[in-house]
Amino acid sequence: MADTTTTAANDTDKRDAIALKIITWSAAGIVVISMLVILVAIVPIALTDIAHRGTMAEDMSKQTGTVFNALLPLFGTWVGTVLAYYFSNQNFKDAAATTQSLLGQMDEKLRKVRIETVWIPMSAIKGIELSADKTEDKIALPDVLNMLSKVVTRIPVFSERHGIVYLIHESLLYRYYARSPDADKDKKTLKDFLDFDDTRGLAKVFAVMGSSGTLADAKTAMDGTDGAQDVFATTTGKADDPVIGWITNSVIVDNAKT
Predict the structure, then answer these.
(1) What pLDDT shows up at residue 183?
(2) CA 92 to CA 105: how far, in whole Å?
(3) Is 58 strand, coil or helix?
(4) How far apart are CA 210 and CA 221, in angstroms?
């Protein structure tokens, strides 16, 4: 950690030195070129006879003005580019540091909340339980759709042992009804829905953790599963074992704010 900090400090010092040198040499370059332009304009005029000095002065003024006008923006652009990089880089570092600080504060809040105090207990979960007599092909899809409401937007599907098998988001159901080529969808089953496109795989996007821990642990579990918005707590931390609690992403967000 110390080596990383030292390296970062050395890099910053080097960038500061480079920026200072470029600005200094650019300013010096502008001064030198200005003086040369003035000398180039004055000397020929001074060496020209009085009768032709007016014409010579006009010509030299145009030529030196052209040279000066061409070089000045070049130096200005150079300095501007260096300053833009320098300050934008510093702003990025400040923003990154602020973000890290906020994330640290959020994690600290989540570490103080035990999952059992905020999860949805199994007794309060509205879902579907599969069994030998209630298989995927015997569950009417309209019945699943009717389980949705303003409050219920996700429907867990449990095994006969109460392990979590699928999690059906309302967006998946709407996606099926919008994209499935079948005309008579009202006669379809849960199996038809899961077999459509890659729905079965999408319905398995959730995380699982043990029955103890904090919301910080739940967030880590959720982050470890790409696209997951839910964590199910089971007796052993395995999906096949009975679910005892359900933590949604909204629970984590709400507790991170308070």
Answers:
(1) 79
(2) 20
(3) helix
(4) 10
Architecture of the CATH domain 115-257: Roll (3.10)
Dist. CA 68–CA 17, nearest whole Å: 28
How far apart CA 25 and CA 31 sit, in angstroms, is 10
CB-based contact 207:225 (threshold 8 Å) = yes
CB atoms within 10 A of CB 197: 13
256 touches 106 (CB < 8 A): yes
What token pair was written down for 221?
Answer: 């579990």
Q: Phi and psi dihedrals of 152, rounded to 5?
A: -90, 110
- The structure tokens listed for 13 are 């010092």
Work out the average pLDDT over 143-165.
Answer: 95
Least Cα distance to 242 among 251, 232, 252 occurs for 232
Check: CB of residue 209 under 8 Å from CB of residue 233. Answer: yes
Give pLDDT tens digits for 198-230: 999 999 999 999 999 999 999 999 999 999 999
Would you kindly state where each structural domain of the chain is located, as residue ranges? Answer: 2-109, 115-257
- For 3, 53, 93, 204, the CA distances from 223, given in Å and listed in that order, are 29, 80, 24, 15
Q: Residue 151 has which token pair?
A: 């409050």
Q: Tell me the residue type at 129.
A: E
- Paired tokens of 170: 């309302």
**pTM of the model as a whole:** 0.62
Tally of CA atoms within 13 A in the half-sphere of 169 that contains its CB: 16
